[in-house]
Write a structure and sequence with these properties.
2 domains, 26-stranded parallel β-sheet, mainly beta, Pectate Lyase C-like, five-stranded mixed β-sheet
Length: about 375
């Protein structure tokens, strides 16, 4: 029978001699019961870099202690406790363990993040919903979550996490380098002005074909002037020529942002959103370099969306921005469609036309005749 004995921490495991036993029970990463423990087996020929989570290197040049259960990766394995202290380094080491794909789990807790977390192709990064809080205190012009390879497209899944953006001018998710990705049941609390939930300028490859389901963004109040944008499909800063294309936003709630959706790309669909207490709902415009171009138009669609106390529900900044929209309910507005040119646009509201500003731009009638 193989001898199994226990140690209190990963540091103590490093001092265990391999011939002391083939398996060691570690009580915790730093201290017993902190969630970072587990069973480790000695692999004599291993030369993998030690990460003090899944692979632990002792004093031998060859041979490593390998965690017996390696998936899904739990951030607690890397000394992260969720007690409100800076967890950037530990969570990044957990994400680095999934360079070739995998799953990273964030248990309930509050994790302070001081620099962007880099996510790799094929990674699923998930938590316990509102109970998993990533409190981002990183620099302006950066996002709490970003692609590890923004120069090349990658696809991954983020779900059930709650991001609090604590720096003015920062973002929750930097979408650059992300295509075919999914964001499910995420929560964004923008605690400062001039912040964005999802920030996505284009680069001819991304952010394209992403799916956002049940993603909620809440601003800090003062929605008339706070400069916050929930979904900011902006343009690239170099050539000012590209934006986010062919993304789908399904469901979710936006409130207390100056702009719920700013969209300068084409082919994007917004379905079933609820928008409340925002100055503007959907703003559609052209990227600066295309204002005078021969080919410059965009087409975007809205379906089944509900707005309440949104001053301007849809804003068309340029006549070449074609909009098709069916609004399930609008109330408390000043203007439903602030348009430069309604040609080729279809905006349908649920009102019967008694309020002039809510009348549909295209009136359709279908008579059913039953024999």
């Amino acid at each position: 029978m193989e001898h199994v004995f226990s140690v209190t921490s990963i540091d103590e495991l490093k001092d265990v001699m391999p011939d002391s036993g083939g398996a060691v029970l570690v009580a915790g990463h730093t201290r017993p019961g902190d969630g970072g423990g587990g069973v480790f087996h000695w692999v004599a020929g291993s030369t993998l870099p030690g990460d003090d989570g899944i692979v632990v290197q002792g004093h031998n040049a060859s041979g490593r202690w390998h965690r017996a259960e390696q998936r899904p990766v739990n951030v607690r394995w890397y000394g992260v406790t969720g007690d409100g202290t800076d967890a950037s380094k530990g969570i990044q080491r957990a994400l680095d363990a999934c360079r070739q794909g995998g799953t990273v789990y964030l248990p309930s807790g509050t994790y302070v993040i001081s620099r962007p977390l880099r996510i790799y192709q094929g990674t699923h990064f998930y938590g316990d919903g509102l109970l998993t809080v990533l409190k981002y205190v990183g620099p302006p012009d950066s996002g709490c979550l970003r692609s590890a390879t923004p120069q090349a497209n990658c696809a991954f899944n983020v779900s059930r996490v709650n991001l609090e953006i604590m720096t003015e001018g920062a973002w929750g998710v930097d979408l650059r380098g992300m295509s075919y990705s999914r964001f499910d049941h995420t929560f964004m609390h923008l605690r400062k002005h001039k912040t964005s939930g999802f920030y996505g300028p284009g680069d001819t490859r991304s952010p394209y074909y992403n799916l956002f389901t049940n993603c909620h963004v809440s601003g800090p109040g003062q929605h008339e002037t706070n400069g916050c944008i929930a979904f900011n499909f902006a343009w690239d800063r170099a050539t000012r020529d590209q934006s986010a294309n062919a993304n789908q936003v399904v469901g979710g709630h936006v409130n207390s942002c100056q702009v719920a959706v700013a969209c300068y790309g084409t082919g994007n669909v917004f379905y079933g959103q609820v928008i409340e207490q925002c100055d503007d709902g959907y703003v559609f415009g052209l990227v600066p370099a295309r204002v005078d171009a021969v080919s410059k138009g965009t087409v975007n669609s809205i379906a089944g969306c509900y707005t309440e106390y949104v001053r301007r529900v849809i804003v068309q900044q340029h006549a070449e921005c074609v909009v098709t929209a069916e609004l399930t309910h609008t109330t408390g507005y000043e203007t439903v469609f602030d348009a430069q040119d309604t040609q080729n646009c279809i905006v349908l509201t649920s009102h019967d036309g008694r309020l002039a500003s809510s009348r549909s731009l295209m009136h359709r009638r279908i008579d059913l005749r039953v024999p």
